[in-house]
């Protein structure tokens, strides 16, 4: 394969399936192309499970191609059934608009927005989906889809096999996604749709619709769904999702997520989530045998892409201060507490449970019994402990749970 974009995608493990890899390679070798990935905006931030897709868009820019970011203001009103056990919460349009505005911040940080030829185009599919005439849509678009074929797609088949309800609203999602591709091809000359492997059926529907309506060839490409060696889902932790927006998750906590990567996942995560060349990754792993050093480098490289080099260095310094030197790292996640509350005294059980450091008071009791909670490095031995002003040095204390969770508690 001569094409540098698709070659690097293969080397990094980004390629799973493609409708016509050879032809796409020849076209993208000769000229700049546009390709899109759709992101439904169900929350104010995407989480790390979407990061592989964003890295693919970033790689497209590297080789002179233009990414289209389709923010699903229309499809989010419906909800993608792919991989879901039940219908997701229906959001109002105002909520979705707020989410779109917030989600765009991440793309503007990770993607290059200064190059006119490759800067991302942001499009909201509400632009056309909310204006559809139902009867016309059924006649012009719905007539090209058969129920027989739609029932074979995993997004539908798996739900039905598990005897979990699938609403008619969700059943229409794949038609809307195909129509998105048709609109982008017709109005933006977008010849490629990229998605996770669970989107293959939906993507093929789009290429088929373009062929039927426009007599043109479009291309679909999927990346593999990431599963961790531990068996857990990418981006899910005890405390919830690993968000990409800084106001949802601090750069330090993001850095720590990568620093705590399972040993078995470190090498492939270098290829997935950093810009270290795949050949250099192989050489690095032959040269460096200390897996913890590799994890720190992984955390630095991934954090640099999202939050910048300064934030990456600061997070590493905070981790060193906190773990290696037993100090108080300035970049630790903060919990602020009103001085009036502390003057009255606050139960350690209430404080830890209310701030979601642990899920319940019973968990806090178990952690104290197991000598797992510390204030400024000193083990908390009494579950009846009351936090008071004397516990704070210059209005700050460091609360630690185990070896990896540390928080700065500040009096305001």
What would you say this structure looks like, in words?
The N and C termini lie far apart (about 60 Å). This protein has helices at about 5-10, 20-30, 50-60, 95-110, 125-130, 135-140, 145-150, 155-160, 170, 175-190, 200-215, 250-260, 265-275, 280-285, 290-305, 310-325, 340-345, 350-355, 360-370, and strands at about 15-20, 35-40, 65-70, 120-125, 190-195, 220-225, 235, 240, 335, 345, 375, 380, 385, 395-400, 405-410. With about 400 residues, it is α/β, with parallel strands linked by helices. α12 (about 250-260) crosses α16 (about 310-325) and α15 (about 290-305) runs antiparallel to α16 (about 310-325). The chain contains 19 helices and 15 strands. The protein has 3 domains: about 5-225, HUPs (Rossmann fold), CATH 3.40.50; about 250-325, Tyrosyl-Transfer RNA Synthetase (Orthogonal Bundle), CATH 1.10.240; about 335-410, RNA-binding S4 domain (Structural Genomics Hypothetical 15.5 Kd Protein In mrcA-pckA Intergenic Region, Chain A). The model has no long low-confidence stretch (mean pLDDT about 90). The strands form 4 sheets. It has a 6-stranded mixed β-sheet with strand order 1-6-5-2-3-4, with helices on both faces. A 5-stranded mixed β-sheet has the order 9-15-14-11-12. A two-stranded antiparallel sheet has the order 7-8.
């Amino acid at each position: 394969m001569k094409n540098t974009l698709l070659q690097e995608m293969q080397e990094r493990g980004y390629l799973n399936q493609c409708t016509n890899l050879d032809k796409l390679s020849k076209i993208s070798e000769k000229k700049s192309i546009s390709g899109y990935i759709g992101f439904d905006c169900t929350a104010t931030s995407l989480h790390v499970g979407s990061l592989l897709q964003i890295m693919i868009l970033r790689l497209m820019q590297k080789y002179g191609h233009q990414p289209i970011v389709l923010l699903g203001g229309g499809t989010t009103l419906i909800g993608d059934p792919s991989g879901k056990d039940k219908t997701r919460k229906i959001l109002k349009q105002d909520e979705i608009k707020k989410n779109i505005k917030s989600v765009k911040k991440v793309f503007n940080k990770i993607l290059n927005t200064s190059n006119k030829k490759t800067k991302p185009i942001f499009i909201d599919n509400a632009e056309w989906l909310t204006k559809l005439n139902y009867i016309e849509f059924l006649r012009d678009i719905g007539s090209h889809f058969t129920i027989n074929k739609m029932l074979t797609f995993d997004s539908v088949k798996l739900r039905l096999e598990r005897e979990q309800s699938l609403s008619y609203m969700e059943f229409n999602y794949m038609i809307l996604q195909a129509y998105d591709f048709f609109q982008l091809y017709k109005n933006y000359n977008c010849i490629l749709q990229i998605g996770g492997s669970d989107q293959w059926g939906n993507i093929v529907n789009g290429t088929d619709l373009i062929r039927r309506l426009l007599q043109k060839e479009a291309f679909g490409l999927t990346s593999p769904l990431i599963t961790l060696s531990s068996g857990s889902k990418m981006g899910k932790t005890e405390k919830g999702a690993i968000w990409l927006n800084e106001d949802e998750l601090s750069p330090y906590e993001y850095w720590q997520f990568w620093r705590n990567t399972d040993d078995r996942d470190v090498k492939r995560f270098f290829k997935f989530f950093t810009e270290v060349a795949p050949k250099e990754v192989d050489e690095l792993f032959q040269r460096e045998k200390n897996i913890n050093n590799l994890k720190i480098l992984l955390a630095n490289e991934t954090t640099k892409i999202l939050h910048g080099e300064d934030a990456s260095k600061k997070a590493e310094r905070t981790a060193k201060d906190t773990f290696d030197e037993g100090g108080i790292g300035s970049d630790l996640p903060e919990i602020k507490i009103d001085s009036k509350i502390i003057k009255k005294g606050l139960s350690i059980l209430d404080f830890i449970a209310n701030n979601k450091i642990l899920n319940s008071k019973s968990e806090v009791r178990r952690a104290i019994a197991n000598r797992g909670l510390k204030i400024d490095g000193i083990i908390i031995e009494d579950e009846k402990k009351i936090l008071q002003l004397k516990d704070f040095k210059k209005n700050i204390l460091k609360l630690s749970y185990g070896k990896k969770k540390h928080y700065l508690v500040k009096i305001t």
